[in-house]
Amino acid sequence: MKISRRLFLHLGAGAAALPTMSRLARGQAWPTRVVHFVVGFPAGGGADATTRILVARLSELWSQQVVVENRGGAGGNLAHEMVAHASPDGYTMLMGTNSVPVNPFLFPGLTFDPMSDFAPVSLIGTYPNLMVVPINSPAKTLPEFIARAKREKVAFATPGVGSSPHRRST
Q1: How many CB atoms lie within 10 A of CB 41?
Q2: For residue 105, which of 95, 118, 115 has the smallest C-alpha distance?
Q3: Which of 23, 56, 60, 77 shows the smallest number of beta carbons within 10 Å?
Q4: Inter-residue contact 78 to 72 (CB < 8 Å)
Q5: pLDDT range class, residue 14, cuts 50, 70, 90
């Protein structure tokens, strides 16, 4: 079979253009195994409850099991360290709270840097912090409470070091 000069030139031009054409990129399927969401606080708290609601929906969307791992302790640093040193394959994620950027200022000598070891993925939600007193407390406003605390010893509770309501007393 004889190929016309025109067809030959078209085939040659097409063959020369093949390497410059973009190719379809095919990403690997993800996730193909269990995804771990690590929470830096014990089970039962706000971060844990929020994470459990989130992972239930993600399990449905991804058709893959997503589990919550609670690593409470050291103001969340045990969880932060675990995730910072985990394989960067997307199968270990941190449910970050405000402790991620705050803890480097509270705990010297951390083995991770939140600015370089973590990449934000999504804002899950926000919630306010509240200060409450017993109904029979003489302090009904914040200034009244502060004045009382300056006069006498008062007891208070926080979720722990590194949490937003925590403040080291001086």
Answers
A1: 24
A2: 115
A3: 23
A4: yes
A5: low
